[in-house]
Design a protein that fits this description.
The structure is a homodimer.
Chain A (H helix, E strand, L loop, with lengths): L9 H4 L3 H10 L4 E2 H8 L3 H13 L3 E6 L2 E6 L4 H9 L2 H24 L1
Antiparallel strand pairs in A: 1-3, 2-3
Helix pairs in contact in A: 3-4
The first copy, chain A, binds a DNA duplex through helix 4.
GO molecular function, one term (chains A, B): DNA-binding transcription factor activity
Organism (chains A, B): Streptomyces mangrovisoli
Pfam family, one (chains A, B): HTH_5
DNA sequence: TTGACGTATGCCGATATGGGAATACGATCG
DNA sequence: CGATCGTATTCCCATATCGGCATACGTCAA
């Protein structure tokens, strides 16, 4: 039941570093599998497997080109992620401040001991 | 070796829906574990385990308060995620267009058959 | 100290994952 | 058709994960 209910959603897909690498690489344009694999230093089956996951969540799109299959980026699925994370934007600096004051409190307390 | 080299990074931490729920909830302020667990409908050990993961990647911060432990949000770790995903912002609409024209091509081709 | 409460940890089972190797599939070319 | 190239799939192993349950730990109160 590992990572239950998460399997095959976008958050899960981008949780794997190699898949993030693939996506980043595809920003430069479509690429056949072997090319991807070689560029990123993974085996062909390895690349195929990761591409499958990315395909299943819709982050990637395939196009047949002779013997080859050109994988291209379809970044639309990343938008919800961006929005979800963006919902915390307000707290980035605030957390900073809160932690700072927290540390201040600790110092204070320590001095009082 | 599941999710190799990913374990305990922020992307992995937010890949789990319940952990995202916890983070979202903590935007409203600090909360003790039992409270979190009850609110989100998970068991206490379950909540503790997820909180541990969040703690280990630094998305959450603990403060002792008597018998209780108050967990608070530290969203700073989400910033890199936001930036990484933001690197694809340009492609959201572009992908749209490309897919559209791709679909057009398919229709065209089909008509020519 | 004992007991109660809040929380963390340990152990277990079921499942899923990533990696490697072998192989099957599909298309092109001779 | 047969051979070859590019890719997907399958099988197996090691490992990690989540969930549930029991239990240990720490703090406070009586």
């Amino acid at each position: 039941m590992a990572r239950a209910a998460t399997t095959s959603d976008v958050f899960n897909a981008i949780a794997e570093p190699q898949r993030r690498d693939i996506l980043a690489l595809l920003r430069a344009g479509e690429r056949p599998v072997n090319d991807l694999a070689r560029t990123l230093g993974m085996t062909q089956p390895g690349a195929s497997k990761h591409l499958r996951v990315l395909r299943e969540v819709g982050l990637v799109q395939v196009r047949e080109a002779g013997k080859q299959r050109l994988y291209g980026l379809d970044a639309r699925g990343l938008r919800p992620v961006h929005e979800w994370v963006g919902g915390f934007e307000r707290f980035w600096n605030e957390s900073f401040d809160r932690l700072d004051s927290y540390v201040q409190d600790l110092k204070q307390t320590r001095q009082e001991d």
